[in-house]
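During the no-cost extension, the postdoctoral fellow (Dr. R.K.) reprocessed legacy sequence entries with the updated structure-token encoder. One reprocessed record is reproduced below for audit purposes.
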Amino acid sequence: MIKTTFNKNGNGSFLFSNKFILLLTCLFMFSGAVMSAKSAIPTSTTEEIALTSENNSEDYAWSRKCVTFKNTGKCATDIYIYDGWYCRFKKRLAPGQTWTTYAYAGNVFRAVEADAGSFNNLKYDKRYKVTRRHSQVVHLCPEYCVDPCDDLTVDAGEDVEVCNEEEVTLSATVAGTTTCTTDAESDCNHTLYKHGGYCSWYYPPSNAAYCGSGHGAKLWTAGGYGTSFVTIDFGKVVPAGTKIHTKMKLKHCSNTYSNKASATIKASLNGDNGFTSLGTVKFSSQYYAEYTYTLDAPARYVKVIDNGQCSFLVDYVRYEIEATTNDTVEYEWSGPGIVGANNTKDITVNKAGNYTVKVKSCDGCEATDTVKVKINNSPDVQVTSVDATCENATGSITFTYEDTPNRTNIELSIDGGNNFTNVKDDSGSYTFDNLAPDTYDIVVRWGNDDCPIELDSVTIIEKEVITVDAGDDQTVCKGDEVVLTASVTGEGQCEECVEYELLNTDYCRGSQHQFVVFINDNGTRRWFRNVDMTWTLNADGTATVKGTVLEYNNTPNTEFEVDATYSGYTTTAPDGSPKGNDCHQEEDSSGWAYYTQLTGTITQVGGGLSYSIGRRGPSFQLGIDANNFEATPGTNGGSGWFTIDGAPDSFGDFNFNFGECITNNTNGVQYQWSTGETTPSIVVSPSEDTTYTVTVNNCGDCTTEDSVTVFVSDTNVSAGDDANIIEGESTTLTATSDNAVSYEWSNGATTASIDVSPTTTTTYTVTATNANGCTATDTVVVTVEPDPCTTKEYDVKAYPIPVEATGILTVDIAVDQDQEVTYETFKMDGNRTGPAVKKQINRGCNTFTIDLDKHCNFLPGTTYILKITGGNWTESIQFMTKQ
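Re-encoded structure tokens follow.
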């Protein structure tokens, strides 16, 4: 009986019988493949552990026991049992696996590494003996299977959830890398791959292929042998940076080369070609020396070549690889959307999905990790805006979107994300109204604040609203003129191009023509290329094409001057227009303009040709794709045929494109009065009450209008019928009117009626003024007839004759000037009767009476003499008294 003691944590000793020795012997008899150790873990000390109850309760039952083994290690474990008579394999437990079996007291279990084969130098060996106590769970932990690569880990990073990213960068973080080292290596024992030229039996080429004893291989370019060389095969490729040591010395020489040898050293991956020179050396020493070179690229073969001078010996060619350290890690990413290289620490991806990175350290250990990339998209929203208009000083911004699966709400912001409006994503659209002209910063996101995105800012453009005031209503007198002036605010200032450079047409029919003018002159075809033609919009609504063109298809090439004017501008297609494009059919003529008339000339410079041209066929047309022969769709140009005066069989056409703007004009307000006038102010003289309307529009196409009424006020006056008066008489003139409030006569009187006593025929004018200040005039002629009383120096009459003796005798005296007269009465005998009476009389007709009863006693039936004496005259009148 052999007594062996095992100590487990200092508790107890165990006595083994020969059966245990048999068990050991049995176990050591199992054979199998010899396992090679993966790491230098020391051999464990074999010990035997009693399987006792965890609660240490005494139980001396001799019946079977229940034993459970659980592999808590990282590699498989084999369990053998010796039950007193047999030793046999029972169970292989994978990592984490549990096995329960029955055993009797005294049974011994042995746990060893799986597929041990030989039980010598086991890295894991545990023995368990069943006692009479309760069984327990046995935890097996084979520490030997710790993998040296377990320390290498890679972290692909946290799962990524981003919004709207076209590309996402993933980065791997590596830990537990190993620094690998390679020992320095040097060798001069190789293989002779090839040699050439002179070959010495005493110094054979093979001597250069191994570490020499100084005997060497002789290289000598002897006459008739060709170039001498040896090619050495290292048997493997050595890396760039390897030192190449060539040991050589001078052997013998003629006087020709001054006792110097020359060798070239070359290296290659191929023994037959592809050699690259490492260097050339000259030497004269007859003692061996190493000549060292460094490889710029990997090589396997080194060639030593004699340069045809003195012979020399090559003792050996030795390579020397320096020791290296290396802690590099190789990366290999895989996944659905890798952009560019996948073998870098950081990669760029552009698709959602799982991305796995596998890293490999310099010692061959590998580790992997996976990261999930989820790319969410922000709401797909289209943003449109409506600018302020002439009618509305505010604008609006509209968001349009579609119903998105798994989403319920969209949040919209027009202030850069400071405030959001939450709407249902199936509502289709949402509009922010009544927005003042300004720039609005647009941000949208999902209703859960997910994936916000800034969109392009939107600017609501302010429309400079135009207003016009035609002025206050006015009252004018009929026949008067009044100035009406429109006052405008918000006129704006807009630039309009009025002069463009013109470009050649790229002829679409494949003839390699680039032209602006074509003329068929009675069968002679002339093509003209643009030199400096321009298109100018004139203030009168016409447009001119002017400039130089070059005739390029006839010899000699000559220049022509174009001077043409288009008129009759309209945006409504005239009859026969538009003319379709001859090169492609996608043109849209909705925005084209037309000119219905053409006049002009195309004149040869320094030559005799001159063409007078006019419109032919459809009207000249302008717009996108309006150039009939332009090959490129979407080009802004013009096209139109023309006639040639005096040549019914000749014709031509302009085909050109618009280039850069040359001249801009600043436009303001355009006026249009209902009279047809287009100036801010107009002069009118209505004959009746009239309303005038002015329509104005600014360069922003805002239009407004205002009206002003001119009331016509009228009056009349009549000065009455013409009048005739005797010189010295007076007459009353009276003016009448329907609505006059004042009168003014030409003599200054301001009453309706005036008394006049002109001395000569006179025309009197009366001006009547109504309440509006309007006047009317009329005239009346007062004709002054000569006074018969003044036509003679004097004229005297007395009546009645006969007269009563006591009656009244009337005397009429007409004199041509004021004077004093004396009358006397005489009898026929010459005796005066009664006194001489003096009277003052005025120029003209005067009448006075003589009371005969008082003057004197006159006898009835008697004849008397009445004597009247004036200034320079005397008149005697005979009168008779009645019986």
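The radius of gyration is 70 Å. Residues 18-29 form the longest helix (12 residues). The remaining legacy entries will be reprocessed before the final report is submitted.
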